[in-house]
Amino acid sequence: MSFKPIKDFEGEIANFFGAPYAVAVDCCTHGLELCLRMSNAKKITVPRHTYISVPMLSVKLGIELEWKDEAWLDHYDLTENIIDAAVLWRKGSYIPGKMMCVSFQFKKHLSLGRGGVILLDNESASLALKKMSYDGRTPDTPWATQKIDTMRYHYYMTPETATLGLEKLPAAIKTTPKQWTINDWPDVSKMPFFQGR
Fold first, then answer.
1. Taking the CA atoms of the chain, what radius of gyration do you get in angstroms?
2. Is the sign of the CA dihedral 182, 185, 188, 190 positive or negative?
3. What is the pLDDT of residues 3-41, one digit of tens each?
4. Domains of the chain
């Protein structure tokens, strides 16, 4: 299997957003999870109106969840340096010093069915996140020949998804994205799962 389409896709996406590095993953939520794990986050602050998988990360990772009332637009901060930018689609919108996670889920502007990317400007962090997303291995080398020594995750974007992304990217760049508002999501803090948490 060739991982070249993934590298090419990461390069094109990084260029569009103006980020030095991009790490493609299988979904935006997993991108957020990897960033939270890498930074050893102890707490996330989540708007009441967002996608439900984001606050569920607090339970999955055993970290504190704090709700906030925020009429966010395009993106919001989960921690000081991690941004949920799932619905963001704007050229040159990368914020330096941050890890920004964008979604390519089927309702998003660049609709790939599933997928996401982590935008960042730290090379060593990009390499660490890439390795974390590939079960602790490096791409393009058979995993059985590598000395995997730590627990990592099976969260990488497939070459097929990246190829679809490369095909659809030119049209996505030329078209105007939907402007999402908080009314596109319910108040997830009121859902039974979060009561008493």
1. 16
2. positive
3. 899 999 999 999 999 999 999 999 999 999 999 999 999
4. 4-194 (3.40.640.10)
